[in-house]
Amino acid sequence: MRQSPLHKIDPAAAIAPSEPTGLKPVALSRPGRRFSVHAASEPRAAGHSVEALSFEEAALEFLDAWSPQGDSNGEVTLVVTDCETGTEHCLRVDVDSGETANCDQVRG
Questions:
Q1: Whole-number average pLDDT of the chain
Q2: 60 in Cβ contact with 76 (< 8 Å)
Q3: What pTM was computed for the model?
Q4: Of the candidates 88, 22, 25, 29, which has an alpha carbon nearest to the alpha carbon of residue 59?
Q5: Which of 8, 62, 106, 108 pairs with 25 at a CA distance of 20 to 30 A?
Q6: 3-state class of 37 per DSSP?
Q7: Which element (helix H / strand E) includes 95?
Q8: Which residues pair with residue 37 across a beta bridge?
Q9: 52-104, pLDDT tens digit by residue?
Q10: Rounded CA gap, 107 and 103, in Å?
Q11: CA distances from 30 to 9, 14, 53, 61, 91 (A)
């Protein structure tokens, strides 16, 4: 019987869970929804697909992956669409802090 390469891993060589790896947890380890996110100044076709648990998290995933430049206030306006339902939210995100607010809310 032929063994797969996975059987040749030495368990003693594995990284102990307490050791920092510098790696982010894999997003697919938890259930999420698929969203399309694009800058409000861009057409919908410029959107990128991200997997997240909420509209806000989808906006932050987009910022992390594509790093759009903020406006003079350090904010970016994003349109986040749930790909399954078509529900769309407009969010303003502070690029430095990650704070999110609906586009119609005034920050104080």
A1: 81
A2: no
A3: 0.69
A4: 88
A5: 8
A6: strand
A7: none
A8: 48, 80
A9: 999 999 999 999 999 988 999 999 999 999 999 999 999 999 999 999 999 98
A10: 10
A11: 26, 23, 9, 15, 24
